[in-house]
Amino acid sequence: MDARNIAVAAVQMSSTPEKAQNLAVADGLIRQAVAAGAELVALPELFNCHGLEKVYRENAEPIPGPTTEFLGALARELGIYLLGGSILEGEPGAERLRNTSTFFDPSGELAAVYRKIHLFDVRAPDREYLESRTVAPGSEIVTTKAGATTLGLSVCYDVRFPELYRLLALRGAEVLAVPSAFTLQTGKDHWELLLRARAVENQAFVLAPAQWGRKADGRWTYGRSMIVDPWGTVLSTCPDRDGHALATLDLGYLDRFRAEFPALANRRPQAYDW
After folding, report:
1. Which residues of 228-264 are buried (b: 16+ CB within 10 A; e: fewer)?
2. Looking at residues 172-194, what average pLDDT do you find?
3. Per CATH, the architecture of 5-263 is what?
4. CB 3.0-4.6 Å disulfide test: which of 5, 8, 49, 179 passes with 85?
């Protein structure tokens, strides 16, 4: 690996309420991505259990716990950085859970934990969604080192709140992770648009693994996992199936781009009266 290059993969899967099955699928997809050259692999939102509110409560787990142990062991075995998309954190049967993203270094150590700040409480074209019925919001903005780069953590609906990503960029993030389970109705019009916007305005790469397909609760998720560069160019995307998007991030290019087009440095925070 070049000191300022890193190969990344955004894994796409269609998780079910069956946790053991989902972990087996994730294991295979991570190994495929690593075999293709990935050094940093990212899983989608709720990759270990997805689709039914009752099942969410039954399958919630603490951190550390069984799923994070699985992720840490895999990161250590394969010698990779591994973003565990998100899982529902909490004791089984708890009234309020956390939608939590975890990040592991190649030694298998849990290097960062991020709890989703913005909850998906909306009336979409197909149905009403109330994430806050089962999930409590987080409050901490999280960045972490991934080799020579800095990763900014977020989850799904967070992508609609540019303030979060600007703060991640100001804290050094060069790669913005957006593990998601976007609905089909919103995803077909907004998914790529929002990811490219977050990349351009923060002069950062975006790594966005996603759920795809029909879920146990009857709704459809959009998929189209993708990797975007700081110019807003989509470097790689995944078709409508299990798999991964793969790209090598040229961080030297990012350094030059930020120096030659210093939008972040040209900010005038003294004029921003909140």
Report:
1. bbbeeebbbbbeeebbbbbbbbbbeebeebbeeeeee
2. 97
3. 4-Layer Sandwich (3.60)
4. 179
For residue 1, the model assigns a pLDDT of: 47
> What would the two tokens of residue 190 be?
């907004």
Active-site residue, 238 included: no
Q: pLDDT tens digits for 193-248? A: 999 999 999 999 999 999 999 999 899 999 999 999 999 999 999 999 999 999 99
The answer to whether residues 30 and 43 touch, using CB atoms and an 8 Å cutoff, is yes
Q: Is 222 helix (H, G, I), strand (E, B) or coil?
A: strand
Q: Which residue has the tokens 């004029």?
A: 271
Among this protein's residues, is 156 annotated catalytic?
Answer: yes
- Using an 8 Å Cβ cutoff, are 194 and 159 in contact? yes
> Which of 49, 89, 116, 238 does the annotation list as catalytic?
116
Residues 247/227, Cβ–Cβ less than 8 Å: yes
User: pTM higher than 0.90, yes or no?
Assistant: yes
CA 81 to centroid of chain Cα atoms: 13
Catalytic residue among 39, 45, 131, 174: 45
Catalytic entry in 39, 49, 61, 156: 156
Q: Is the peptide bond before 64 cis (omega within 30 degrees of 0)?
A: yes
Q: What is the radius of gyration, based on Cα positions, of the chain?
A: 17
SS3 260: helix
Residue 167: CB atoms within 10 Å = 14
Whether 32 shows a pLDDT value over 70: the answer reads yes
Please indicate whether residue 49 is annotated as part of the active site. no
